[in-house]
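Posting this for the archive.
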Amino acid sequence: MKKFGTAAILCGGKSRRMGFDKSEIMIDDKLLIEHIAETLEEVFEEVIFITDDVRKYEHLKYPVYEDILPEKGPMGGIFTALNYAFSEFVFVTACDMPIVHSDFIRHMMKLIEKPEEGAASWKNGYIETLYAFYSKSMIERIELLLSREQFKLLDLIQSSKMHLIEEEEVLELCGDVDVFINLNKKNDLALLKEIFGGITISWRSRRL
């Protein structure tokens, strides 16, 4: 089995604060998740989508997998991704995390050495649980946590051998680019114009 090769985009979440499904944000005439996936293809052989409804993405070229254990949050999505990925380690991001920093991702790969099971980063005193690598060796552990109704990814990370990247190292590699930005509210959509330049942002046919 290859050590690296698969990236997974989690397309779930209730999007309550946004007011609509964040996975359906459009940049010009293309879904934001397609932009994310295309950039990830510069690093990974395979990009997969994890969702609660495969019908939403059947028209795209990327493999789409429905949650094996539905309604389990990001940990359930990671569980599904690890089960379907062809590589030992899977890079996991989300449909509302628009920045893909290829050089930083490659750097994360270089940091993972046996017996480590993945890599995540510190930011402002907290561990960023997404934009991280997870290993197939965690599958049984995740299943156990979910069976106990423990849904916090931090619990998984703390019970695993993860390489934790110091914030200073992230800043050195990424500079002013905050790779952990995510879109929670409509006001956050203005960030997309900073990231992608002069664009039209919409949700389905609705102009935002």
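Helices lie at 32-40, 73-84, 102-111, 139-147, 153-158, 167-174, 190-196. The chain is about 30% helix and 25% strand.
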